[in-house]
């Protein structure tokens, strides 16, 4: 994360055999992982109403400290939105942003389009064709030969549409990356709208259906985008909010200002001065070296702020915003780890034990990239901890990328 004293939260509803699975990654001032990072809680007979979900999230806020949070990303379910409303009322004086899973929003947009009469006919026709080809070995063989001839087998495949196959859309794949992509959420929706406006007149859709699609894009855009998305786009050195409307820019700037007032280690007036220079390419930003470094594809925005803009307080605000998640995909990936542990053959595992095993599995992956730097724990040296370091040792600075760490909370209903 941008600052060990600030954490982000990803909250995702999950239906599985266990009642509730929660994982938390917490960093102290020396960038050393806390030992108390995982817990499991049974929801028992409680229904997942908005009030109950809010109470569970509130417990995490209280445990870690409400002032350490600036964002909470959930899915777009009605109970989650109810929880947002409760929090926005309770924490009106804090710059905590509550927003939905961007990739889920794009999936909802796809569902809006598939409900149209013309697209429904097209999908049913495609299903019928796939069924015929797959039912005949001769046709299947001819199709495979065609794939080989074109030498692009992945671009021409026989797949039935399913509710969870989201990755067929470019922007969903991009936003679900392990990298922080919150700044690209606005870019995704802007590009999608441009493509629709260009391609829809060339399609077989009626004018009424075309209008419905454009209305759906606007509705989903309004549902998805919050001031934190606009501020992330503005603070990204390659984007600088160049595709945002005047109203969106104002909302983004207001959020940056409120966050600057919230952070204890910056002066809001200095942040506003830095922000003005940044947006107008004046002062520090006048030099060609700085401008070239800002758009260097090999330097991430967060690394650029930390390495090049070290002396400017705007960097703390930028790092805070740009390290927020665009989706709760990190939570989903931890659930995949859980599914590989709590299998049909190991279905007698208790919730607590399965959670502990998932914690070990998931955290080992975080350290796998720097396995060569982690010492081997031996029975001969009892002073070494689980990761091979003595209690007072400081981990190598490059062994943990705190800008990528997230706090995840998974809520689900037991079967």
Describe the structure.
- The protein is built from 16 helices and six strands.
- It is α/β, with parallel strands linked by helices and 415 residues long.
- The protein has a six-stranded mixed β-sheet with strand order 3-2-6-1-4-5, with helices on both faces.
- Strand 4, helix 2 and strand 5 form a beta-alpha-beta unit.
- Helix 3 runs antiparallel to helix 8 (207-224) and helix 9 (227-235) packs across helix 10 (246-262).
- The model is unreliable at 1-39 and 372-415 (pLDDT under 50).
In short:
By secondary structure, the chain is of the alpha/beta class. The chain is built from 16 helices and six strands.
Q: Which helices and strands appear, and what pairs or packs with what?
A:
Layout: E1 7-13, E2 20-23, E3 38-39, H1 50-64, E4 69-74, H2 78-90, E5 97-100, H3 102-114, H4 117-135, H5 137-150, H6 170-175, H7 185-199, H8 207-224, H9 227-235, H10 246-262, H11 268-280, H12 288-294, H13 301-307, H14 314-322, H15 329-341, H16 351-368, E6 407-411
Parallel strand pairs: 1-4, 1-6, 4-5
Antiparallel strand pairs: 2-3, 2-6
Helix pairs in contact: 1-2, 3-8, 4-5, 7-8, 9-10, 13-14, 15-16
Describe this protein with a few key phrases.
six-stranded mixed β-sheet; 6 strands; disordered C terminus; single chain; alpha/beta; 415 residues
Element string (H = helix, E = strand): EEEHEHEHHHHHHHHHHHHHHE
Rg, Cα atoms, Å: 24 Å
What is the count of structural domains?
2
Q: Spans of 5+ residues with little confidence (pLDDT < 50)?
A: 1-39, 372-415
Global mean pLDDT: 76
The amount of beta strand, in percent, is 5-15%
Q: Helical residue percent?
A: 40-55%
Tell me the overall shape: globular
Number of helices: 16
Question: Which structural class do you get from the secondary structure elements?
Answer: alpha/beta
Strand order of the largest sheet: 3-2-6-1-4-5
Largest sheet: 6 strands, mixed
- Strand tally is 6
Pfam family, one: DUF659
Main location: nucleus
GO molecular function, one term: protein dimerization activity
Subcellular location: Nucleus
């Amino acid at each position: 994360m941008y600052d060990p004293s600030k954490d982000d939260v990803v909250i995702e509803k999950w239906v599985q055999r266990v009642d509730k699975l929660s994982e938390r990654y917490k960093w102290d001032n020396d960038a050393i992982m806390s030992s108390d990072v995982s817990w499991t809680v049974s929801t028992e007979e409680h229904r997942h109403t908005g009030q109950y979900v809010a109470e569970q999230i509130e417990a995490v806020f209280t445990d870690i400290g409400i002032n350490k949070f600036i964002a909470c990303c959930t899915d777009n379910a009605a109970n989650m939105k109810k929880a947002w409303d409760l929090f926005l009322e309770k924490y009106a004086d804090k710059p905590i942003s509550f927003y939905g899973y961007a990739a889920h929003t794009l999936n909802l947009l796809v569902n809006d389009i598939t409900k149209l009469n013309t697209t429904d006919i097209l999908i049913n026709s495609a299903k019928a064709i796939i069924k015929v080809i797959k039912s005949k070995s001769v046709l299947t063989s001819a199709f495979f030969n065609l794939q080989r001839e074109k030498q692009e087998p992945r671009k021409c495949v026989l797949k039935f549409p399913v509710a969870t196959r989201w990755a067929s859309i470019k922007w969903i794949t991009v936003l679900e990356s392990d990298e922080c992509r919150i700044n690209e959420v606005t870019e995704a929706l802007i590009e999608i709208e441009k493509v629709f406006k260009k391609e829809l007149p060339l399609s077989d859709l009626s004018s009424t259906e075309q209008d419905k699609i454009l209305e759906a894009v606007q509705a989903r855009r309004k549902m998805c985008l919050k001031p934190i998305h606009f501020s992330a786009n503005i603070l990204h050195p390659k984007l600088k909010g160049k595709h945002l409307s005047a109203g969106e820019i104002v909302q983004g700037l207001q959020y940056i200002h409120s966050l600057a007032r919230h952070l204890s280690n910056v002066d809001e007036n200095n942040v506003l001065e830095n922000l003005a220079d940044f947006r107008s390419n004046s002062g520090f930003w006048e030099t060609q070296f700085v401008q070239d470094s800002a758009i260097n594809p090999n330097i991430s925005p967060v690394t650029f702020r930390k390495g090049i803009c070290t002396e400017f307080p705007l960097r703390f605000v930028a790092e805070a915003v740009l390290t927020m998640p665009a989706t709760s995909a990190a939570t989903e990936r931890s659930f995949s780890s859980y599914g590989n542990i709590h299998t049909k053959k190991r279905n007698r595992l208790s919730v607590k034990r399965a959670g502990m095993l998932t914690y070990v599995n998931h955290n080992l992956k975080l350290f796998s990239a720097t396995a060569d730097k982690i010492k081997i724990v031996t029975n001969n040296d009892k002073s070494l901890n689980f990761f091979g370091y003595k209690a007072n040792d400081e981990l190598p600075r490059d062994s943990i990328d705190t800008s990528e760490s997230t706090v995840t909370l998974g809520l689900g209903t037991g079967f």
